[in-house]
Amino acid sequence: MNHSQKINKVEIRNLQMEDYEQLFRSFYRIYADGSDVFWTREQISSLIKMFPEGQIVILVDGKAVGCALSIIVDYGLVKGQHTYSQVTADETFSTHKPDGNILYGIEIFVHPDYRGLRLARRMYDYRKELCETLNLKSIMFGGRIPNYHKYADELRPKEYIQKVRQKDIFDPVLTFQISNDFHVRRIMTNYLPNDEESCHYACLLQWDNIYYQEATEEYIYPKSTIRVGAVQWQMRNYRGLSELFEQIDFFVDSVSAYNCDFVLFPEYFNAPLMAKSNDLNESQAIRKLAEYTEEIRDRFIELAISHNINIITGSMPYKNRDTGNLLNVGFLCRRDGTYEMYEKIHVTPDEEKSWGLRGGDRVKAFDTDCAKIGVLICYDSEFPELSRVLAADGMQILFIPFLTDTQNAYSRVRVCAQARAIENECYVVIAGSVGNLPRVHNMDIQYAQSAVFTPCDFAFPTDGKRAEATPNTEMILITDVDLDLLNKLHSYGSVRNLKNRRRDLYSVNYGNKSI
User: Fold this and answer.
1) What CATH superfamily is the domain 226-500?
2) One of 344, 370, 426, 474 is an active-site residue; which one?
C-alpha cells in the first residue's frame, strides 16, 4: 500500500462471520515449500462461538485487513515443549479452557498491502488489555524465526536469538516480538513442521501480566490507590504525656477523617517531654525520655485501631533490655492491632556524642493491608544500601521520619529521599518537625518541609514531587499514590533502575544474602 495515501479511520473490534468473505483470501501462511494453510469458515465460526472476545479484526476505512485469533489454555499445557498441532488439538481448539490462565495466540495477520502501519502492534496491545481484564497470568505463543535459515550454518538457534536481542541481526518476527515486551522462554523444535525458513525451530514467547492475581478465597483484593498522610509537627511545651497525646490524637483523627491508609509522624516528635529533665545532662535526659516509649507505643496501637489507620510513629529513644544499648526506634502500628519495631541503623555523630545512642541492626520491609512499606529514620535515608535492601524485599512506599535543625541538614534528607524514590522505583514520604524548644538541650531549633516524592517518568510528576507542605508551618499533608503505576514502571519505564542493575559487577550484601 502507498502509505502516503490518506487513511481516515483505523478500528479494532471483535471478529464476526460477516468479515470472513473479506479475510479468507488472506487467511494463509506461505512457507518456503509454497504450501498454503487456510482457516476454514467452520474453524472461525467455532473460535467466535467459544471465545468471541479473543478473536479480533482490524479495519482500515471499513475494510478488514488483519486479524488476531487466540484461545485460553492451562499453563501446564504450554510451559514445556509442544507443537502448534498439540496446543490447538489439530486446529479443533478443544484445548480451549475458559478457566485456564494463559492467553495463547494462534494467529496474527496483517494483509501485506497494509504492513508498516503498526497495525499488528495495535492487536498486540488489545491482547495485553484482554489478558489484564480477564486476570490471566500471561500471553504465550510460538514465534517463528524466519531469517534463521540464512544463519543456520554458522549459528545455533540460541546464538541467533541472542544476536537478534543485541540488534546484530534483524528478524522480522522475533525483533518485533522483543520490541513488544515479549521474552523468549525456550526454543521449540518442530513447532510448525512446514516452516523451512525457521529450520523447524520456534521461540516460545511470553508476556507476563504484572497485575495478575492468583485465585483466592478472600473477597477483598488489595487496592491500588493508597492515601498517605504526613504530620508536620510543631514543637511546643507539654505538661505531660496526656497533653502530648491530645495533640497526637488531634492529628490522627484529622488524617483519618480523610480516609487515609497511613499517617507518618516525625523523628523525636516527643522531645518536648525532656523539658522536665532539663536540669540533667543530655545523656540522662534522653534516657528519661526513653522511659515513655513503651507507653507511647501502646497508645499509638489503640489509636490505630480506633481510627482505622496504619500509624508510623516517627521515632523515639528506646533502651534495649537485653543489651542495655540506647537505640532510636519507631513502630508500625497496624489498624488490626499488630505492631512491629524498626530501628535507626546509622546514628548521627551528635546522637552518639551527646546522648550515647547506638545504631540498630534490623532492616526489613513490612507487610500491611494495602502496601509493603519500609521505614528509614532520618540519617539512614542518606545510605542507599539500606533502601536497596528494602526494595529487594518488595517495598512500595518508603517512609522517612526526620528531624533537622538547619536548612542544609534538611536538604540532605530531602535530596537523598528523592534519589531513593528514583533508584528504587518507589514512593517516598518524609515528615519532620518545625519550631523550637528553648528549654530542651540539644533540641533548640527545627526546620522541615514534609513531602511525598515519586519516581521520574511519564506517569508521575515531571519533577518527582507528588505533594509538599508549606515550609516551617504546622500542618498535615495528604495525597494519593497509585501502586499500579509502580508495577508498570518496573516493566515498561523509560529507564528501569531495578532491572538494569549490573549484578555481574556489584551487589549489596545484607547478612548472608546478596541483593
Assistant:
1) Carbon-nitrogen hydrolase (3.60.110.10)
2) 344
State the catalytic residue, choosing from 197, 260, 267, 370.
267
CB atoms within 10 A of CB 458: 10
At 146, list the grid cell.
524466519
Give the integer Cα–Cα distance in Å for 380 and 182.
38
Catalytic option among 378, 416, 426, 456: 378
267 noted as active-site residue: yes
Which CATH number applies to 10-208?
3.40.630.30
pLDDT tens by residue, the chain, 515 residues: 555 567 788 899 999 999 888 877 655 433 333 444 568 889 999 999 999 999 999 998 888 888 999 999 999 999 999 999 999 999 999 999 999 999 999 999 888 888 888 899 999 999 999 999 999 999 999 999 999 999 999 999 999 999 999 999 999 999 999 999 999 999 999 999 888 999 999 999 999 998 888 876 554 456 789 999 999 999 988 889 999 999 999 999 999 999 999 999 999 999 889 888 777 888 898 999 999 999 999 999 999 999 999 999 999 999 998 898 999 999 999 999 999 999 999 999 999 999 999 999 999 999 999 999 999 999 999 999 999 999 999 999 999 999 999 999 999 999 999 999 999 999 999 999 998 887 777 677 899 999 999 999 999 999 999 999 999 999 999 999 999 999 889 988 999 999 899 988 998 988 877 88
Q: Where are the domains of the chain?
A: 10-208, 226-500
Q: For residue 302, indicate whether it is catalytic.
A: no
Catalytic residue status for 423: no
Which spans in 379-504 are helix H? Answer: 384-392, 407-424, 483-492
Which residue, 407, 338, 420, is CA-closest to 380?
420
pTM score > 0.85 for this model? no
Helix (H) or strand (E) holding 123: helix 119-133
